[in-house]
Structure formats: structure tokens, C-alpha cells
Amino acid sequence: MNNFESIKTILICPSCQQSTLRVTAATNEIVCDSCGTHYPVSFGRPVLLSPNNDAFCQDDYRNAKIPVINKRSYNWKKIIPKPSVNLASHRVLSGMSELLKQKPSAIVLVVGGGSQRQWLDVRLGADDSVKIIYSDIDASADVDLFCDGHNLPFVDGVFDAVVTTAVLEHVLYPEHVAAEIMRVLKSGGLLYSELPFMQQVHEGAYDFTRYTLSGHRRLFNNVSEIESGLVAGPGTALVWAIENFATAFVVSSTKRKITKAIIRLFFFWIKYFDLLLKNKPGAMDGASCTYLLGRKIDGQIPDTEIIAQYVGSQKLRHT
Q1: DSSP 3-state assignment of 291?
Q2: CA nearest to 243, candidates 295, 202, 197
Q3: Per-residue pLDDT reduced to its tens digit, 123-181
Q4: CA dihedral over 43, 48, 49, 51, signed as positive or negative
């Protein structure tokens, strides 16, 4: 229950939005004194999902074990080249870390933490002055608590920064999740978001939406941009396309994995064209993924300003 005790002052009940959660000694669960809703705990990690959640059931998380890295599998994966480059996250998140270090203390929320804890802790400089809370809906994720991004169980304006990388394409209502992120972020707080554009389906049934950079900015129109741009460009998009073209001919899961490995071994080098294209306006029109770093503002960025900020090569204007 250590995770709950360390963050309970910033938590709210997902069912009634009240800050009245406590641990029950008899069942070792979390209960809300306001509405009486009970929440399970999985290996010390609160499962703060409303019982009325249509997509995810509390009981599916009761025995969600803390993930252990399979070193043999991990080493095998290192042999096969990844299909993409990342031109932004290490540099931009290091810059975010410097901004956070200017505060006496800071608390950061990672929405969709997955297996990112090890590298994000290093990149964001997690220590006594920078506390990072990892959340996810994936039962296999390495997180501090399980929750649904549509209903973040945190009080308003509590976080100094929020990080969400390749998450909002997997939620049913991205605008709703973006609004929740803005709700829990302090005024002037930092947002780092990555969203795919030219990418094929990569999480099966949990893959719904894609965004251009303009759409990315519009989704977070409560954020004043510090910088934005390519995470990965047309080179990465092309490798993804070749890989998915090839795997379209095979059905078996094993054969698909083998096909992906072969394609990546033969075509991975194409992704490095993104290093040459990263400052080309046309590359943004075919971006595999974009990023946005900004600060929460009071109010919204006008749509006309977002349209005017378009940085691609197409000069079409309707007026």
C-alpha cells in the first residue's frame, strides 16, 4: 500500500470526484468515504477504475503482477533494428528536466507509462526534488497506479508537468483525455506530448486515431507552444509502410513476427533519411510522429492562430 500512502493527498475518487479515499484494514482495499465505492490494490498499486467503466473491469487488475524484464528476450530484440528514429524525446525531455529543476520541488504525471520508467526517470532527473507518478490502463505496465485517462483520479491543478507519448491514439475520446490532462496540470505547467500521424495500426483493437501537427496543436489548444516538430519523419513512415505491406500477406502470428524481422533487417536504413529531412517543411506533411512541448495557459489558442502556424509545404488557403 506504499504507493497509495505516498500519493493519497492528491487522489480523488473516480466515481464521485471527492478526496475521501482511505485504506480498509479488513480487506486491504481502497474505499471512498463519500460514495462507498471500493477499489482493489494490485501488488501495492491502486486500481482506481470506476465500477461503471465499460471498457476496463477492476477485477482484471487484482493480480496484475509487477513486470520483470526478460533479459534473454530483451537481448534478442536488440539484434533486430527498430523501424523508427526518435529525433525529439531525449533532447526535449532533457530540456523539460532543466525547467523543472528550477523549482524547489516538482511532481510529474506520466499518462500511459507502459515500460518507460527506467529511461524517463533518467531523462527527467527523478530525485527528491522531482517526483514522477506513472499511470496506465495496461495491466502489464510498470506503473504506480492503474487508471483510465478519460477519468484521471487526481485533484485539479496538482502537477507541474505531464508527459504522454504515443498514448492518445489509443483512447476512445482523445479530446476528453486531453481535457483531463489540462485539468490536473497547474497553470503554467509543462506538457510534453507525442502523437503519431503516418503510422499503421500498432496496438490492434486499441488503436483509433491519428493527428497532423496542426491537429496535435488543436487537441492541446490550452497550451502555449514552446517548441514542436518531428519525432520521426517520412523515412520512418516508409519503413512502417513496407513492413505492413509485407505482413498483409501472412496471417500466422509467428510468420508475421518473422516477416517483420526480415523487413527491418533489410530496410531499417531508410529511417535515417529522417535526419536529413527533419528541417524540411515537406517532411512534416508525411511525418510518422510529431511532438509538442508547451505551457498551460488560462484560455485557448485561437483556431486561426493554429492554422497560421502550419509549417508544411502545402500553401492551400480557403480564404
Answers
A1: strand
A2: 202
A3: 999 998 999 999 999 999 999 999 999 999 999 999 999 999 999 999 999 999 999 99
A4: positive
CA distance 263 to 244: 9
Domains and CATH numbers, the chain: 2-48 (2.20.25), 71-233+289-308 (3.40.50.150)
124-135 exposure pattern, b = at least 16 Cβ within 10 A, e = fewer: bbeeeebbbbbb
Look at phi and psi of residue 64 and say left if phi exceeds 0, alpha if psi is from -120 to 50, else beta. Answer: beta
**Is the CB of residue 194 less than 8 Å from the CB of residue 227?**
no
What are the two backbone dihedrals, phi and then psi, of residue 222, each rounded to the nearest 5 degrees?
Answer: -95, 10
Look at residue 1 in the predicted model and tell me its pLDDT: 47
Residue 73 has pLDDT above 60, yes or no: no
| Residues paired with residue 289 on neighbouring β-strands, in sequence order | 196, 232
Helices and strands in the chain, H and E counts = 11, 12
Indicate whether 85 pLDDT > 60.
yes
Rounded distance between C-alpha atoms, residue 174 and residue 164, angstroms: 12
Q: pTM (2 decimals)?
A: 0.94
For residue 229, the cross-strand partners are 291
